[in-house]
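Dear Dr. H.,

I hope your travels went smoothly. While you were away I took the liberty of generating a structure for the chain from your last submission, since the lab meeting agenda had it listed for discussion. I wanted you to have the full record in hand beforehand rather than looking at slides cold. The sequence, exactly as received, is reproduced here:
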Amino acid sequence: MPNIKIFSGSSHQDLSQKIADRLGLELGKVVTKKFSNQET
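The corresponding predicted structure, in token form, is as follows:
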């Protein structure tokens, strides 16, 4: 398989993990933060 990286936001983390597991890959590391107005 070519070099593929999978990243997930906060909406569908379970789905992203299932896809990564199925492909035999690890999810990429991400850091999300919320602004003072609760936007991500």
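Two observations you may find useful: The chain has a mean pLDDT of 88. The chain is about 30% helix and 0% strand.

With kind regards,
E. W.
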